[in-house]
Specification:
The complex is a heterotrimer of chains A (155), B (132) and C (869). Chain A is an alpha+beta fold and 155 residues long. In chain A, strands 1, 2, 3, 4, 5, 6 and 7 form a seven-stranded antiparallel beta sheet that branches. Chain A is globular, with a radius of gyration of 15 Å. With 132 residues, chain B is α/β, with parallel strands linked by helices. The radius of gyration of chain B is 13 Å and the shape is globular. In chain C, helix 8 runs parallel beside helix 10, helix 9 packs across helix 11 and helix 12 runs antiparallel to helix 13. In chain C, 43% of the residues lie in helices and 25% in strands. Classes of the chains: A alpha+beta (155), B alpha/beta (132), C alpha/beta (869). At the A-C interface, helix 1 and strand 2 of A face helix 3, helix 6 and helix 7 of C. Strand 2 of chain B pairs parallel with strand 34 of chain C, so a sheet runs across the interface.
Chain lengths: 155, 132, 869
């Protein structure tokens, strides 16, 4: 089933809501997903990226934050304030994505996706290079501002 | 429960996670906390720590030497074999947890986690040790 | 938009009609639709058309042709995990196990009652229903977004109908088709995806060859658009599969030879003529809004507006004086208010003028696409041009130079750099060569890089040519460094091309490039690696003659200096009474004055002394312990130091005037500014000043050591440890005693000897090694130390030779007690782990790392260094 549908990205939405709630004490609300390129793209300053390989799906999951939102999340997570995204701090986005991914993975594997090990990387400065049209954007709203997850399909 | 004087070793390759776990430990009352950025370094820290390490909380996935490698090394050493060892992992999957249990992990915590969750797990571990 | 949502359905598969009817009755009563099939094959057919509304499959086990298990297996393979229930009375243990494997949710007994059906629907379909609802939302969102894009495409098409399409319009149309194609691929059935795919194929020659869309083509586009719209709404009501795609695709077959099918499109073309006229009018209207202005006029305008700023400042000062003398006078107060107003307007005038002079780089680089395409054709090469940063706006003078230079450079790269496709393939590269133009602004310079992945510069060939062309003598040529060699290709009369081609190879052009770049004060930096490619980097200063810098005026002795405000960290009065926030003191260490502030030690520069003002001219009793004057803390590229001044005068926008030629080599002055009253102030270049004063991290080291030595008496095998960021996660430590010096190095100063990066250091050639790469056990997580323009180098002396280790950053210097403990596994260059301030630090041995470099250091370290440039 190469089709990328709600049953595939819902675990990511749920993983995100739970992770942010528990780790950053932040209630996030997800908004209608849309396809990248069809609406004005949300900007971000930092993104965690995980490449995924599974029998049913290959692609890439990116968790993208504008700077103030990320700094706010880190502040809540570590109870320490940060004036800027330093090299060390930027790992935080990979860690959050790891947690979200870990949550989603269980559900997805139950669904028969058997997702393979993926290595998270961090991208800075709004340059994800996801080809337009193959990517679903899942926007989220929080009291700190908006952020989003991109799910790109290479299948 | 563990004494607040217990020397805790926090092992994680990511600075943010080290901070997070350290912060959580402080919330639980621990005052002496040392951190290390991977399993191999943690082993060095275990050997030289003064006072000796009384609790290890380690990430699973780390470059070079994983948490599982560290666990196996610690358990294989007569000096440190009994140190309570908590594995922190984002992998909420059964077979991985089983692997850690087989290697002698005291308990595990799945990320994301709260101070309460860690506390519960620590209590279980402590009870187990006290009973033994 | 059609928002009608279809009800969810249950698919019931049974060869006995009676049961089907019974099921249908119950399910309809619960409020869902029912789809019936009497065989598995039939069931699969229904699934392929309506899977997006099916929330549950109820199937018999014993059926002819395909039994229930086989049917379930096929469902899983093709349609995923749709909840599935078996209708069966008795089942064996074996069957039950098989069913579990096939993810069958339940077994229900025949005959079934209403309550059972209701319970099952409630229990097992919840997730499926919400997933389908979300899918539907996604689909609806997609259709709405796509319809908006199609509207846009339609209006573009209509405005160009009758010919005259421009590149931008075609690109936009193509982009829209591409986007819809990609997104629609997520949905089943993929009719829209396949249709738009063909549509995109139809468009792509127009885009690639830069061809105009003629009226026939526009007609095809408009028709495609209508079809896509129909398909989209069919996706919503689930009737897409009723469209015969092959028939629809005929549209694209007929476009070249106008036939009955396309006569309609020709018809639109005639009616489009009037629209074409309307378009022309729109263009006329647009022209009226834009007026061309000569650059010389802009230059004068800038100059004049600068003069106004100078006069404005003088007036302002005078008015403030008058205001003091006649405080309370209403006329004077009014004058002051008006002057304030004038300041504001003048300020925004400045901004506008600066903005006016800027042009988008886009205008300069866009035509290069054409150049590259033409070159690809004539050279029979496959070349792709990539441009990043084209939205950057640059001063006209820079745009002008870039415009002419880049064409030469692109030609040069296409001709000499990129290999023939067959050669590329033989070298294990992709057939398509890439030329990447990358532009960005880094503080006060525009950096434009031209990167090709071609064969790189051939040093030996260049050397040979130099001698052949009599540009250098043989022995001289042998001694030339790589960068000297590379720079020769910009000399007039030099060309390494084996034969003279249409494109380049006559040796003119490149020298013009160099001249024009030099003329605007720019620099060219070349890095190349044989077989991998070449990077030409232009560093072009934003013209200083037109910059206005917000600055602080200070007086030191009798000179007035202007300090750029952005470099100022804080200003402190030496009069301790006024100072409350910070704990600080000035002290003398190692013969130099330092400022100790909040536990930091900053070097201190006495401006008067720095500029060699004759001592006799200097005011008397200049010792810093005196309670007069001010300290200004400045930040130069992240490094702080203090300067001492006598007086802090005013904040002001300084119009920077270039210094005369005789002062050009004075790197510590960025220019001069008129202060009014016929005074000239010198604008300090903070980085230049820091450099001139030799303020570097190594000075800090010695200062720190002394502070500790005289403050604390306790010495318990305490060692100084430098905590480093080497690009590999974790904290790394090196004992200070291993290091001879610490240097801050700019990337531009690095040269290459073969693949080995080197630095000319104290008149010696010092090899540089990336410490992170040397120790790198996990290349994935290693950032190159020199992915930034400036980085730190630890200098170690080994057998009388200097060796440099590049690190990203020196985080801190701390004191550590005790020895490192061995790691779990030994690593080359690693002494062990040491707990420092509750942190376990990996302690390194530079000597061991260096000695083991041949084992550890692989190709990747050097290649990442080249790429990093």
């Amino acid at each position: 089933m190469p089709q990328l549908d709600a049953s595939f990205f819902r675990p990511f939405i749920e993983g995100t809501l739970k992770t942010l709630k528990v780790q950053c004490k932040t209630d996030a609300f997800h908004e209608s997903p849309f396809f990248k390129g069809m609406k004005t793209e949300p900007v971000f300053a930092i993104a965690g990226v995980i490449d995924i390989a599974s029998v049913t799906f290959t692609g890439r999951i990116s968790l993208c934050f504008p700077e103030p939102v990320f700094l706010g999340m880190m502040e809540r997570m570590l109870e320490e304030s940060f004036p800027e995204i330093t090299l060390e701090l930027q790992d935080g986005v990979a860690e959050l994505l790891n947690m979200i991914f870990g949550q989603a993975k269980v559900t997805l594997n139950e669904q028969g996706h058997t997702i393979q090990k993926a290595i998270p990387t961090v991208v800075r400065d709004n340059t994800l290079n996801t080809p337009i049209g193959k990517t679903v954007v899942l926007p989220f709203k929080t009291d700190l501002g908006v952020f989003h997850i991109e799910i790109r399909s290479d299948s | 429960m563990f004494s607040p004087d217990t020397h805790v070793l926090v092992v994680d390759d990511m600075m943010t996670m080290r901070k997070l776990v350290t912060k959580t430990c402080k919330e639980l009352g621990f005052s002496k906390i040392t951190d290390a950025a991977d399993g191999a370094l943690a082993w060095a820290a275990i050997q030289q720590a003064d006072p000796p390490i009384g609790l290890i909380i380690s990430d699973w996935n780390m470059p070079n030497t994983s948490g599982l490698d560290l666990l196996k090394r610690v358990r294989a050493d007569s000096r440190f074999g009994k140190i309570p060892f908590i594995m922190v992992t984002a992998e909420a999957e059964q077979h991985q947890i089983m692997e850690a249990v087989k290697s002698g992990v005291s308990n595990y915590v799945i990320k994301p986690f709260t101070a309460e969750v860690l506390k519960e797990k620590l209590e279980v571990v402590h009870k187990k040790i006290s009973a033994a | 938009m059609n928002k009608q949502t279809k009800p969810f359905s249950v698919l019931c598969v049974d060869d006995e009609d009676d049961f089907l009817l019974l099921l249908e009755e119950s399910i309809l009563e619960i409020g869902h639709g029912v789809l019936k099939a009497s065989t598995g094959v039939e069931g699969l057919k229904i699934l392929s058309e309506k899977q997006n509304e099916i929330i549950l499959i109820i199937s018999d086990i014993q059926m002819p042709e395909m039994n229930g298990y086989e049917f379930r297996q096929k469902c899983l393979e093709h349609f995923g995990d749709i909840p599935f229930v078996f209708l069966s009375g008795y089942i064996s243990r074996e069957e039950a196990l098989k069913a579990v494997e096939l993810k069958v949710s339940r077994f229900i007994d025949k005959p079934v009652d209403f309550a059972t059906i209701e319970k099952i629907l409630k229990d097992v379909t919840g997730d499926r229903i919400s997933a389908l609802k979300e899918d539907r939302e996604l689909l609806e969102g997609f259709v709405a977004d796509a319809e908006a894009l199609l509207e846009e495409m339609e209006s573009i098409l209509l405005s160009m109908d009758g010919g005259g399409s421009d590149v931008e319009s075609i690109n936009r149309i193509f982009a829209i088709a591409h986007t819809i194609k990609g997104s629609s691929g997520f949905f089943k059935p993929d009719t829209v995806h396949r249709f738009t795919h063909k549509f995109e194929d139809f468009l792509s020659p127009f885009k690639k060859e830069n061809r105009e869309l003629n009226s026939v083509a526009v007609g095809v586009c408009l028709k495609s658009l209508d079809i896509i719209k129909q398909l989209l709404s069919a996706m919503l009501d689930g009737s897409v599969s009723s469209f015969a795609l092959d028939d629809l695709l005929q549209l694209f077959e007929v476009n070249h030879a106008p036939s009955a099918e396309s006569s309609g499109t020709v018809g639109t073309a005639t009616s489009g003529d009037t629209k074409g006229n309307a378009g022309a009018k729109a263009v006329e209207a647009k022209v009226k809004e834009e007026v061309r202005v000569g650059i010389d006029v802009l230059d004068q305008f800038m100059e004049l507006s600068g003069e106004i700023t100078v006069i404005r400042n003088v007036i302002n000062k005078q008015v403030r004086k008058i205001e003091k003398q006649f405080s309370g006078n209403r006329d004077v107060a009014l004058l002051a208010t008006m002057i304030d107003e004038m300041l504001k307007i003048n300020g925004s005038l400045q901004d506008k003028v600066v903005e006016l002079r800027k042009v988008q780089l886009k205008n300069v680089v866009r035509p290069l696409h054409r150049t590259v395409r033409d070159l690809s054709d004539s050279l029979k090469k496959d070349i792709h041009l990539e441009i990043t940063g084209e939205s950057l706006k640059v001063d006209t003078s820079i745009a002008e130079v870039l415009g002419s230079s880049l064409i030469h450079m692109v030609r040069n790269s296409a001709d000499h750099g990129i290999e023939m496709p067959s050669d590329r393939e033989a070298a294990g590269k992709s057939k398509t060569g890439t030329i990447h133009i990358k532009a960005r602004q880094i503080s006060d310079s525009i950096h434009v890089e031209l990167i090709d992945d071609g064969k790189g510069l051939n040093r030996e060939l260049i050397r040979k040519k130099i001698v052949e062309k009599n540009l250098r003598k043989d022995d001289e040529a042998k001694k030339m460094t790589d960068s000297e060699l590379y720079s020769m290709i910009f000399e007039s009369g030099f060309s390494t091309a084996a034969k003279v081609t249409d494109v380049s190879g006559r040796g003119v052009g490149m020298d013009m490039v160099k001249k024009s770049i030099m003329k605007i004060g720019g620099k060219i930096d070349i890095q190349s690696k044989e077989g991998k490619g070449t990077i030409f980097k232009f560093i072009l200063p934003v013209p200083k003659s037109v910059t206005i810098v917000a600055s602080l005026l200070v007086r030191a002795d009798d000179s007035i200096y202007s300090l750029p405000q952005e470099a100022i960290v804080k200003v402190m009065s030496l009069n301790r009474v006024e100072n409350s926030e910070d704990l600080w003191s000035v002290r003398s260490l190692a013969g130099a004055d330092v400022l100790e502030i909040n536990d930091h030690i900053l070097p201190l520069v006495d401006l008067g002394r720095a500029f060699h003002v004759d001592d006799s001219l200097r005011s008397k009793s200049k010792t810093l312990s005196n309670n007069d004057g001010y300290l200004v803390v400045l930040n130069s590229n992240g490094f702080e130091f203090g300067i001492r001044v006598d007086e802090v005068l005013d904040l002001e926008d300084s119009v920077v005037k270039k210094l005369g030629k005789h002062m050009k080599e004075l790197s510590h002055f960025a220019g001069a500014t008129f202060l009014g009253e016929n005074q000239v102030g010198l604008i300090l270049d903070i980085a230049g000043l820091a450099g001139m004063q030799g303020i570097r991290a190594d000075e800090m080291k010695s200062v720190r050591n002394e502070v500790r030595d005289d403050s604390s008496g306790t010495k318990l095998n305490v060692r100084d440890v430098l905590l480093l960021d080497i690009g590999v996660p974790g904290v790394w430590g090196v004992e200070l005693s291993q290091v001879n010096r610490l240097e801050k190095v700019f990337k531009k100063d690095i040269q290459f000897s073969g693949q080995q990066p080197i630095l000319i250091y104290r008149n010696e050639t010092m090899p540089l090694y990336c410490l992170g790469n040397m120790l790198n056990f996990n290349s994935q997580s290693c950032h190159s130390a020199i992915d930034r323009d400036e980085f730190n180098v630890l200098v170690m002396e080994q057998n009388g030779k200097m060796i440099g280790f590049m690190v990203r950053e020196i985080i801190d210097m701390v004191q550590a007690v005790g020895d490192a403990s061995p790691l779990m596994e030994s690593r080359k260059g690693v002494l062990g782990g040491l707990i420092i301030n509750d942190q376990t630090v990996t302690m390194l041995s530079l000597k061991e790392a260096f000695e083991s470099r041949n084992e550890n250091q692989s190709e990747q370290s050097t290649s990442s260094q080249v790429n990093a440039a």
